[in-house]
Amino acid sequence: MKLLLVAGARPNFMKIAPLIREIGRRRQDGAALEFRLVHTGQHYDAKMSEVFFAELGIPAPDINLDVGSGSHAVQTANVMTRFEPVCLEERPDWVVVVGDVNSTMACTLVAAKMGIRVAHVEAGLRSFDRTMPEEINRIVTDALADLLLTPSEDANENLRREGVPDNKIRLVGNVMIDTLVANLEKARAGTLLQDLGIAGEEFIYVTLHRPANVDGRESLTRIMDELRRCADRCPVVFPMHPRTRKMCEEFGISLNGSSGLRIIEPVGYHASLALTEQARLVITDSGGLQEESTYFRTPCLTLRPNTERPVTVTVGSNGLTTMGRLRDEIAETLQRARRLGESPPLWDGNTAGRIVAALVDEE
Ligand code: UD1
Fold first, then answer.
1. What burial class does residue 128 get, using C-beta atoms within 10 Å of its C-beta: 0-12 exposed, 13-18 middle, 19+ buried?
2. CA dist., res. 291 & res. 248, Å (int)
3. Ligand 1: residues whose CB is within 6 Å?
4. What confidence category does residue 257 fall into, taking pLDDT thresholds of 50, 70 and 90?
5. Residue 259 alpha carbon to ligand 1 centre in Å
6. Is residue 258 predicted with pLDDT exceeding 80?
7. Are 16 and 43 in contact (CB under 8 A)?
8. Residues 23 and 33 sit within 8 Å (Cβ to Cβ)
9. What's the CA gap between 27 and 15, in Å, rounded?
10. pLDDT, tens digit, for every residue of 131-190?
11. Mean pLDDT along residues 300-324
12. Residues of the chain with pLDDT > 70: what percent?
């Protein structure tokens, strides 16, 4: 069985790594499993891509489509035109896509039209908010995929409601947690907190990059003002996504941190895990951080009106917030327990095994 594994943007890399490890394990046991790794090049900066390959031990991609940045249409189209010849050349049995980025949807469209089966890892998540580009990507990908590998029961319900037959859906758990568990020791051995001079102190870990938060002048100005105010009381560590940095520059928002606000370059995977585990509070609009903070039971405030990951709220340590409520909710959360909620079922570090077993079962 030959798999074409697709990764394109930062949050994809931690979902692909455990699959590659599991395939390697099965090959050692004599399984006739082969894979090629395709990097679409949606993310290309070393800090957004290479560092994750190095830290997670992902082999260099067999094929790099080098698509780079662009509008949604341009980026999607570039992935499609460059991925089609790869499918023709490689003739895989399955294209495996992960997450909800433009690369996920683009490669799914190409494979489906060529009659190549598609497996979607992290299927069934829905924010019910079609102003989010990722929601469009999720809907299209799940409508076309042949095997829908879901992280939680709510995802199965969403798919059933959309009329997906049960025999296409497998509840496998959260593959990102496989990577988290496998990297915990290395994350704990890092020195970022010492380097920032906040080891052992309470601090807030912030990541924000969603267009709805950062692409508007008023919204981004308010966010940065609020973080500066907050940092007067509790150090705030904010590794800034290139989109957010670009928008701050465009709007003339100063990036000089006050003494409490540490605006730093995007951090690697291990440093981000360490920040998430040790923070007193995480403030984010990232899907991945909602899940990682849930695993660590670190309180998290998600600056979004909705989440496609509702278990992080119903079971985990996450809560949704708005700009208007942020100040009060930060103060309230800092009064609450240091650890909240629980880890959802099947977020156990063994999801990649269940994914590869599901693929093998289908043959
Ligand atoms: C993308 C995903 C989003 C995911 C995020 C994680 C889509 C629609 N969005 O958003 O779901 O949460 O990745 O990071 O697929 N840029 C760089 N260097 C890079 C990559 C991007 O400077 O390596 C800058 C460029 O100016 C680019 C902008 O960031 O225009 C946005 O990049 P893009 O990949 O279009 O979207 P993200 O905001 O990163």
1. exposed
2. 27
3. 9-11, 42-45, 48, 69, 100-102, 133-134, 209, 241-243, 246
4. low
5. 29
6. no
7. no
8. yes
9. 19
10. 999 999 999 999 999 999 999 999 999 999 999 999 999 999 999 999 999 999 999 999
11. 97
12. 100
Beta bridge partners of 282: 205, 300
**SS3 state at 204:** strand
Contact at 8 Å (CB) between 103 and 125?
Answer: no
Distance (Å, rounded) from C-alpha 265 to C-alpha 258? 16
Among 10, 207, 243, 284, the mutation site with the greatest number of ligand 1 atoms within 8 A of its Cβ is 243
Residue 32: count of CB within 10 angstroms of its CB: 10
- In the chain, where do the E strands start and end? 2-7, 34-39, 63-64, 94-98, 117-121, 147-150, 169-171, 204-207, 236-239, 261-264, 281-284, 300-303, 318-321
CATH 3.40.50.2000 holds for 184-335? yes
CATH tag for 2-173+347-361 (out of 3.30.70.980, 1.10.10.10, 3.40.50.2000, 3.30.70.420): 3.40.50.2000
DSSP line for 38-68: EE--SS-SGGGTHHHHHHHTPPPPSEE----
Query: Is pLDDT at 261 greater than 80 in this prediction?
Result: yes
Q: What is the mean pLDDT of the chain?
A: 97
Phi, psi of 94, rounded to the nearest 5 degrees: -140, 145
The sign of the CA dihedral 287, 93, 77, 68 is positive
Dihedral pair phi/psi, residue 141, rounded to 5° = -60, -45
Does the annotation count 241 as an active-site position?
A: no
DSSP 35: E
Q: Do domains 2-173+347-361 and 184-335 have the same CATH topology?
A: yes
Q: How far apart are CA 301 and CA 308, in angstroms?
A: 15
Tokens of 146: 């042949």
Q: For the chain, what are the domain ranges?
A: 2-173+347-361, 184-335
Tokens found for residue 172: 């496998």
Tokens of 52: 């994750």
Task: Round to the nearest angstrom and report the end-to-end CA distance of the chain.
Answer: 8
